[in-house]
Design goal:
There is one protein chain. This protein is mainly alpha-helical and 120 residues long. It has 3 helices and 2 strands. The chain has a two-stranded antiparallel sheet with strand order 1-2. It is elongated. The N and C termini lie far apart (80 Å). 5% of the residues are buried.
């Protein structure tokens, strides 16, 4: 691909995709990440042969992609923390009250079972 208009089109599409990816990450819509990563990989592959010619144009995109990777890493770390906490609470037999996306209260754990511990 050596035609400048095709190259600019690919770069514009990649930049738009990276911006969408950032918005999806910030909104916590992680279920959409796989599709965006797939699209991004295809665009990057199409650009692979043109990188030496367009290094200056690609530098801002690289910064955006790095920023998105950091957002994704932090989102995964948060998910791991919550998962570990819920596992710990489940092992302890505790009940946790949370609110869903619509503001309804939900109970995590076995609220129906109460235990009496007798210590001697």
């Amino acid at each position: 691909m050596s035609e400048p208009s095709q190259l600019e089109d690919l770069l514009d599409r990649l930049e738009s995709l990276v911006d969408r990816e950032r918005q999806v990450l910030l909104e916590g819509r992680l279920d959409q990440i796989a599709q965006l990563v797939s699209e991004k990989s295809l665009l990057i592959e199409a650009l692979r042969d043109t990188i030496p010619e367009t290094a200056e144009r690609i530098a801002p995109l690289q910064l955006k992609m790095r920023r998105n990777q950091e957002l994704f890493d932090h989102a995964l770390a948060g998910i791991r923390v919550v998962s570990d906490r819920l596992t710990h609470l489940r092992e302890q037999g505790k009940v946790v009250q949370v609110y869903d996306a619509l503001g309804r209260r939900e109970t995590i754990g076995d609220a129906g079972e109460t235990r009496l511990e007798h210590r001697v």
